[in-house]
Amino acid sequence: MTDRPDILCIGSVLWDVIGRSDRHMKRGSDVPGHITRLPGGVALNIAMTLARFDLSPALLSVVGREPEGEELVTACQRLGLATEHLYRSEDLPTDQYMAVEGANGLIAAIADAHSLEQAGDKILRPLIEGPLGFVEAPFPGPIALDGNLTESLLNQIVKHPAFKAADLRIAPASPGKAERLLPFLKAGRGVIYVNLEEAGILCQTTFSNAPQAGAALLQRGAARALVTDGGNVTCDATQDGILAERPPEVMVTRVTGAGDTFMAAHIASELRGASRDTALHRALATAAAYVAGGSGT
After folding, report:
1. Residue 18 falls within a domain, yes or no?
2. CA 202 and chain centroid, separation
3. Terminal CA-to-CA distance of the chain, rounded, Å?
4. Mind listing the pLDDT tens digit for each residue in 234-260?
């Protein structure tokens, strides 16, 4: 792929190893189920959904050169994603994520994104030194970032002139990494996508619903915040007002990647010129289809 991409997805590109069971689980449960390995990571999940909406995303991340890395890059290319801007490391292994899901949702997960953290700003070279952009001619389109990037790198992105023309869309990746989004709150930059728990961490409190959390994020400096809350009301909060909508009721068959699918569908809708309320509605419908076991488009 040599044409300019529609959007850049910067962050985790890895293998998802997911164990799923249709039974309720608790600590120490040992139940039958299925284990799958799929391309994953927040940035990659977003890119895959964007590609299903006929957009052309490019990945900026680190992938090792071992067999697992070569297999992952090949899988990404088959999905229609631009991989030529990936930092391919001889020394760093390909990252991975492991999760266990039951009928009652996510039970536990471990994200091994150490290679992404160690690669640091090497993954940004195509945006700073070309061909995607330069300090003097920054990339002018949308960029999706995820919180698997280190806080220091996210701080650098907020201030770096190579990002000043971008439409930044940011997700924390997990509640444990939500505080990494604080630089964007302080700078009042970008669109932040969080769930209710992550919003509480950013605001150092707890919220009873998404609109309440969205209003608080605006008060903390956010330019715009979309807050999800599972099957409860989701909101899109800006200084022009707070939109709220409840997602469709569906039978939940998977949860890993649902937030990434919501974010990607929302971005895709807005890139196609949808209004705020239409974009929110489409994103909720897409995420609901995904958790119900559909393709998420």
Report:
1. no
2. 17
3. 23
4. 999 999 999 999 999 888 887 778 889
